[in-house]
Specification:
Layout (H helix, E strand, L loop, with lengths): L3 E3 L6 E3 L11 H10 L8 E4 L2 E4 L5 H17 L4 E5 L15 E5 L14 E5 L4 H14 L4 E6 L4 E9 L2 E8 L29
Parallel strand pairs: 7-8
Antiparallel strand pairs: 1-2, 3-4, 5-6, 6-7, 8-9, 9-10
Amino acid sequence: MNEQVRSPLDGASVASPLAPQRRRFTAGDLEAMDRSGILGPQERVELIDGEIIIIAAKGARHEIMRTRLTKFWSRRSPEDLMVASEPALHLEPHNEPEPDIVVFQDVLQAPQVRGDTVLLVVEIADSSLSYDLTVKAALYSRFGVREYWVIDPKACETHIHRDPRGQVYGSVSVASRADLLTPLLAPTLAVRLGELRLDWDGEG
């Protein structure tokens, strides 16, 4: 029931204003906005807990790391695996992030992949390290993503998250550029970041 207050103008009782309501968008809403032109053709967004998040512009280090790692994995990927760059990962109607790289079984089409069926999710965090290690980690763990990597291209370190337990991962470790990174569910994609040709000398 609304609280009744006295109007300062005429003394009449009026209902106090309700607290502002926040609307949670869905993946379907996002698709409709894209089709109608509300979202610009170059505007990259993702959906996190019903909120539309604008993805920050990607720097040179980010793009070099993403393209080099995608190429490395695509060349070594067996027939039963798919490596996708910047797909929408549909976790549920109010959550559709757009990770930098995902690995999944080739029997699935990209729109069919869910948190509990994706084999590996990778975010490259040139300017979003804190966000990817907190908000994104909690999101992916909550939806059962079994392995999640956050790559810091500046330090050339990889934060490896495994064993999702609700909002947190039971195992979190950090690997250097010289360490062999072996995805638990896709071991044929083992990689050392130091062996990729990461040509960003002179970049800030």
